[in-house]
Every structure is written in C-alpha cells, then in structure tokens.
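Reviewer 2 asked us to include a model.

Predict the structure of this chain.
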Amino acid sequence: MKPESLLRHLDDATLWPQGCGLGLAEAYERALTLRQLRIRRGEQPRGYKVGFTNRTIWDRYGVHAPIWGTVWNTTLSFCEGEGEIALAGTCQPRIEPECVFGLKATPPARATPDQLLACVEWIAPGFEIVQSHLPDWKFTAADTVADAGLHGRLLVGPRLGVDPLAGDAAAFDAQLAAARITLVRGSERIDEGTGANVLDGPLHALAHFLGALRDCPGAPDLLPGDVVTTGTWTDAWPVHRGEHWRAAFDPPLVPLAVRFT
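Predicted model (structure tokens):
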C-alpha cells in the first residue's frame, strides 16, 4: 500500500482492504515516508510511541517483538490528572496505560542506564489510544509498523521531575518495574498489570527503543523535548464515547483518568 493510501485511511478512519504486504524493514521505510507526508502538510513530530513491549500479550496479537512509531502535535495532549479525548477520527480504538518519558537531552551513543536516565527530564502516567486499520485487530508486525505504529492519540498525565525521584538508574528502574496498575472502566475493574511487563521495566524499554531507532536507516534521533511512551502495562481494551476510564498506578507514577467523547 502506498504512503498516500496509508495517509488517506488514517485521515478517514477507514479499514484497509488487506495487509500492507511488506517485510518489516520495508514497512519502516514506508512509515518514514508517511512521516514526511505528515510533516509537509504541517504536522509536527513530538516524539515516539513504542509498542509490543509487553510480552504477556505477544501471542494474543501475533507480534513477538517491539515496534515503534511517531507521536504528533495533532495526537498529543496533556492534563493534570483527568483529561478528555475525542475518539472521532480513530479506527477501532483501544486504551493502553503506560509510563511516558520526557527527554531533556539526546542520549549518547551506547548510553549506560545511568547516562540514559540523566537525559530524562520527567516521567508521567499516560493513556495511549491505539488503533488498527485492519479488521478485528488481525495483523502482522509489518502491518503495525506501516499503520503508523498503531498510534492514534496520547494523553499524558502529571509530569514528575526525575531528579527528586531517582537515585541510580538500577534503583529507579526497579521501582518502576515493581509498580502495579489497576485499570478501571466506570466502576468495573478491567485489568491489572505491572511495569515489569514492558521488557522488564520502562527504562529497559526506552533503552531497547533507542537502539532500534538508531539501527533504522533514515530514522530521526531522539531530541530534547521528545516524549516517548514505552508500552502498555495491561492488554489493550476497546473504548467508546461516553466512557470514563481510570488507571491507578503505584508510585512513583500517579493515577490518571480520561473521559471519551
């Protein structure tokens, strides 16, 4: 499928007639071309989403390694604990509770965990609204990459400065890995998870993504100010207009709620 066709399906929230028919490397090339089309029409990259870091759901979706895509000024929003997301323009949307990093510097080559953490300004709870343009969420890994990394929207909650939270990187990552989350829709408990689900911890997921990004020909590097969301701590759950969802994260993250319109 041509980049122009991919963009049209994104804009119209319509299903693809079939999979992209590409290998994984070709899918990233196609995704980077789609990125340039979006930049040319005025959208601005704001960072990256990293998907399929949660090994507990790999078999469910048939994707057995992480993937990544771009987050945009048109898809990113912030709140101080409770936000609102319009689902118009999304296709088969689902919610994912995640840990989001905000970068203050570009990490050095072959960064150690402590060097990587030193480049992080803040962490925050986040809801990524993912979407699929293939029926019933049935796809290959290459399809998910070509499909803009399945990224639809990203709501970032209260941002917590890393410096007061972090000692060394090992202790910081251990705390995030041990943290749990309960995902609630209305008054119904829907799912539970832990930070360790995402490649043993969000900082591990960030490090993995950094290597993958730099191994991808033509991919732009991380920049100061970028946000990076590191993968869902639970399964991805379908969402609908009128619903209210809440993620109760353990410290160091804080709870986050969203209402869908």
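The CA atoms of residues 165 and 252 lie 7 Å apart. The chain is about 25% helix and 30% strand. We have added this to the supplementary material.
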